Structure formats: C-alpha cells, structure tokens
Amino acid sequence: MPVPDADDVAALVAESRAAGRADAAARLRELWRDAYLEAAAAPPVPPPAPAPAPVPSEGSAWWVYCVAAAADAGLVPPDVAGVAPGSPVEIVTSGHLAAVVSPVPLAEFNDERLREHLEDLAWVEQVARAHEAALEAVMGATTIVPLRLCTICLTHERVGALLDEQASELASALDALRGRAEWGLKLFGPPARNAEAAPAAEQDDGRTYLERKRRVRADREEAQREVTERAQRLHDALGAEAVASAVNPPQRPEAHGRDAEMLLNSAYLVEDARRDRLRAVVDELAGEYEAHGFAVELTGPWPPYNFVSPATPALS
Amino acid sequence: MTSPVAASQDVALVDLVDRLLNGGVVIAGDITLAVADVDLVYVGLRALISSVATAEANGVPLPR
User: Fold this and answer.
1) pLDDT per residue as tens digits for the range A257-311
2) Interchain contact, B20 vs A148, CB within 8 Å
3) Taking residues A91-109, what's their average pLDDT?
4) Chain B contacts in chain A segment 209-228 (CB below 8 A)
C-alpha cells in the first residue's frame, strides 16, 4: 500500500473538518428543535403576581355588621335598615357562619372619602347609630359577634372568604355569647367641690394655716378612699351577676361632658335570664350611692363589643 | 328579646364610638379603619363636646 502523500492528508483533514462542521450543525439543529418543541408543549408561564387591585371608587361594596350562625340566618328580621339609605341588610353564608351585610356606594365609602367623612361628626353619628340599630335588630333575634365599625368588602365572595378564614374562632365566640348580652356601667363622683377653695380667714396665723392645710389633705384622702371603695364594691356586685367583665379607662370630662369625674367605666356580659336581677342590684346600689352624691348609670343590652377580642374573637 | 335602646338618641355618641371603634371583632375587609382614623373621630368628638358645653354655658338653646 502506497504511503499517502502530504497533499492527500491535507485534503482529507479539510474534508473531515467540513463534514464535522456539518454534523455539528445538524446536531445543534436537533437540540434547538427539541428545545422549541418542549417550550411549545409546556403550560404558559404564569404572569408575575398581580399587585393588589386598587379599591374602585364607583359601584358598590358590602358593609359587614356582624356574624351569626348560618342555622340562625332565617331568624334575621326582614327589612333591617342598613347604613346606606334604602339598602336593607342581606345575609351572606359560608359553611356554618352567616354575615349580615348591606350594600354601600363606593363613591362615598372608598378609603379616601371615608377618611374625609370621619372628620364630619354628624356623618359619623349617623353611620354609628345606623350600624348599632342594625346590630340590635339582629341581636333581638339571634346571637351575634359584632364587627368593628367600617368593615367593608368588595364582594360577597370576599365576605365568605373572611368567614372561612376565622371560622373556628367565630364559631366558638358565638357559643360563648349565646343567651348573653353586654351591659355598660358608669360611676360618677360627686360634682366638683369648691370646699378646698374656702377663703382663708384674714386673721389666720401660721398655726391655724397649717392646721387647715392638714385638714384639707386628710379630707381629700378620705374622699379618695371612699371613691375607690365605692367603685370596687359596685364592680364586684355586678361582676357577681356576670359571666365576664371588662374595665375600660374612664372617659375624660371633655368627652362625657358632666361636671363630675368618671370613676368607673365597665362592661359586663350577663345571661339574659339574670337581666332583671342585674337591674335590681344596680337600682339598689344606685339609690344608696346617689344619697352620697354619686351617680350610677347602667346602659344596655349592648351587642357584646367588649367580649370579643379584636384579633381572636373568643370570650376574653 | 332585646329592645333597641342603645341606638336611641339617649345614648351618648361617645359611648357608641367607644364601643363601635374600640370593640368588636376586626376582620381584614378590603376597606377598614386604621388607628389614626379612630383618633381622628375622637378629635372631632372632643371638639364637638367642648363646643356644646360652651354653648350651654352661654345659655344658647340647643336642639334636642
């Protein structure tokens, strides 16, 4: 066999390089083809997570008043007025729970308008009384878990989803509240006294001056003791009739508008069966306290606002 | 049965506001009030009540 000469070898290398290049191109073409076929067969890539939709400023949304058991939804009286005129309440059920809702126009109840309205106390009062009246109408028929003012959902589905989210907490709150109502109690001290301002006699010498100061201080301490004792005794007496109680900070004089200090601002969750007994206990103590210049005020029955905690609506 | 006493005009607005804005269950609706919004209502309440007190002190007859 003749030995290949250098030219042949060079030609062979050139040919094989060209063939290899063509083979590589064919192989790459296959890979590209497979990649395209795979991409075409795969489900479409989901779009990036949508930003939360801005609350529209037209159309209507659903004001949520309270939650009741779905089984009791039929007890809700017809034509209970809602916060928006001419739009009575409706029921949205999900699972074992029902929400009492009514449509409100978004033009007036979107975030921005709502904030403007909050500065208008007449608007706040109208809405607060309408919300409360609706709760009381429903509460007269069945047990409710009241919601905070201005809880608004865009759709019925959203309301249902919120019921589902807290289903077990809401259900146990309903159980704890069944057959019970909230009562409010306020105790006011005697009207502001001017005794301390009694003018010093002209001829006060140093000793009588100190004597008088000491007496004033002793009187004040005695008055403070009496206040504390009376507030405690009243609270204990109502607490004995209640399933649960809550003591709230006293309202300031500029809020309650009386010429007296509020000494006790409390709430009691009371069995409906003990309601008369509660009233009797309050009447008796109120008579005694009033004789000493104190004032006792009982309000109710209220929806159990003070006996559902904001985060987990269980009996506190 | 209960009677709707609490929504009557006899109940002071401040008592209602205390309960409706501080009590009750909070669920995450699409629109809800923030703490700052509640404060806003209280600012308005105080302004109203002090103006009522002033009007009464000045002998201005108030509508009931």
Assistant:
1) 788 899 999 999 999 999 999 999 999 999 999 999 999 999 999 999 999 976 5
2) yes
3) 95
4) none
Residue B62 has pLDDT above 60, yes or no: no
Greater pLDDT, B64 or B22: B22
Q: Which stretches of chain A are DSSP H helices?
A: 6-41, 106-109, 111-118, 121-139, 156-165, 167-177, 206-239, 253-256, 275-291
Number of domains in chain B: 1
Mean pLDDT of chain B: 69
Q: Is residue B45 part of a domain?
A: yes
With contacts defined as CB-CB under 8 Å, which chain A residues touch B47? 121
> Does A151 contact B at CB distance below 8 Å?
yes
The answer to the question of residue B23 being in a domain is: yes
Among B6, B27, B37, the residue with its CB nearest the CB of A147 is B27
DSSP B10: T
- Residue A218 CB burial class (10 angstroms; 0-12, 13-18, ≥19): exposed
Average of per-residue pLDDT across B39-50: 72
By C-alpha distance, the chain B residue nearest A259 is B53
The answer for A 50-69 residues in CB contact with B (under 8 A) is 55, 61, 64, 67
Number of H helices and number of E strands within chain B?
2, 0
ipTM of model over 0.85:
no
pLDDT digit string (tens) for A217-233? 998 898 889 889 999 99
Considering only alpha carbons, which residue of chain B is nearest residue A252? Answer: B46
